[in-house]
Amino acid sequence: MTTLLEMAQVLAPRLSAIRREIHQHPELSFHEYRTAALVAETLRSLGVPVDTGVGKTGVVGHLGETGPVIALRADMDALPIQELNKVEYASRVPGVMHACGHDVHTTCLLGAAMLLRDLVLPGQVRLLFQPSEEGMDKEGKSGAMRMVEEGACDGVSAVFGLHVHGSFPAGSVICADGAMAAAMDNFRAVILGSGAHAAYAWEGVDAILLASQVVTSLHTIVSRRISPVNGGVISVGIMQGGSKENNLAERVELRGTIRSLTPAVRETLFYELDRACQISKVLGGDYELNIRRGYPPLINDKTLTELVRRVALDTVGPDAVYERPPELGGEDFSFFLQQAPGCFFEVGVQAPGQPLRPLHSPHFDVDESVLPLGAAMLAGVARAYLGQVQVP
């Protein structure tokens, strides 16, 4: 019996051409017009009904007409990074490149559509081509949030997504039970003092000194206020204040990020951050704190992760299936997982003998042999979930 992977390998030249077309014409968040048009045109050529303009620039394809609905997701946006790779398919857009593999994700999902359209499935497959995973619009909403709001997950019983991983060898599949990626929240704190001449410092309240105490305190939150087995971190990325060498600063602005792996830890970190800022009041000053909620933690369903693992074992064999611990990066696939249980898994893309190319690097690239594998995995997961014969 011909396997899905063997069927996908026949598509390799076409998938490579699609990936390179997308890679050469990267588009930033909520500006994926050319990419969305390519996706819609490709799906229509396969006879797949298409909805466009979902979540601003997203595309939704529909396979099947009756039965349970499964969703497969790929993100389409690029990053504001100047590509430094010297390859024929390098980005033609100055200052923009696919440095996170979204061109691969989109291509793999199109490949999955090519495989699935010829199968008789006891259910429906909804293909979610999502804009803006890397950023939010002026209202603080990412592409996943916009698509969910517009009904892209209505009636879906399970949702799956794929991402590349540059630290694992090409041809491998990586799974993670439970928490896989962190909640990603930002904060802005303004520490308020009162100005004075530096020669008469006792006549004022030094906001820089207050802010220093706050920063020291908030860096003890993770080590003393949450269990070490629960992931979390608070980082201050910006500290700005003062206007002259011999004046006490009246205000200092702190900006940073909060990462957590569970909803409970997330709320604890919010509470403790506010308590840390209260030190400024104890020392005679005041503060203003604003926490901007971002992506929630990405928590895979245990049963569906096992389904993905079984498909991976059947597709690439036990030596190429890896487990990994949670990481504190953020991923807005988590919004889909709030609508239905699912699993987000990864495919290794590091070419043999090549140096490590981390995500978001201007040198990031992939071994294109993974394109058929990604397509086969997405199609195989859909087929396995919908109760077809076991993937050979």
Short summary of the structure?
This protein has helices at residues 4-10, 12-24, 33-45, 102-116, 143-149, 207-218, 221-224, 263-277, 279-282, 302-316, 333-337, 370-385, and strands at 50-54, 58-63, 69-75, 124-130, 156-169, 173-175, 178-181, 183-192, 232-241, 251-260, 286-295, 298-300, 321-323, 342-350.
Characterization of this structure:
- The chain is α/β, with parallel strands linked by helices and 392 residues long.
- It has two domains: 4-180 and 297-385, Aminopeptidase (3-Layer(aba) Sandwich), CATH 3.40.630.10; 183-295, Alpha-Beta Plaits (2-Layer Sandwich).
- Helix content is 32%, strand content 26%.
- It has twelve helices and 14 strands.
- The protein has helices at 4-10, 12-24, 33-45, 102-116, 143-149, 207-218, 221-224, 263-277, 279-282, 302-316, 333-337, 370-385, and strands spanning 50-54, 58-63, 69-75, 124-130, 156-169, 173-175, 178-181, 183-192, 232-241, 251-260, 286-295, 298-300, 321-323, 342-350.
- The strands form three sheets. An eight-stranded mixed β-sheet has the order 1-2-4-3-5-14-6-13, with helices on both faces. Strands 9-10-8-11 form a four-stranded antiparallel β-sheet.
- A hairpin with a 3-residue loop joins strand 1 and strand 2.
- Helix 6 runs antiparallel to helix 8 (263-277).
- The protein starts with a helix and ends in a 7-residue tail after the last helix.
- The model has no long low-confidence stretch (mean pLDDT 95).
Please identify which CATH superfamily of the largest domain we are dealing with: Zn peptidases
CATH topology of the largest domain: Aminopeptidase
Instruction: Choose one word for the global shape.
Output: elongated
Q: Any guess at the CATH architecture of the largest domain?
A: 3-Layer(aba) Sandwich
Q: Report the structural category.
A: alpha/beta
CATH class of the largest domain: Alpha Beta
For the termini, the CA-CA separation is 8 Å
**What is the beta-strand fraction?**
25-35%
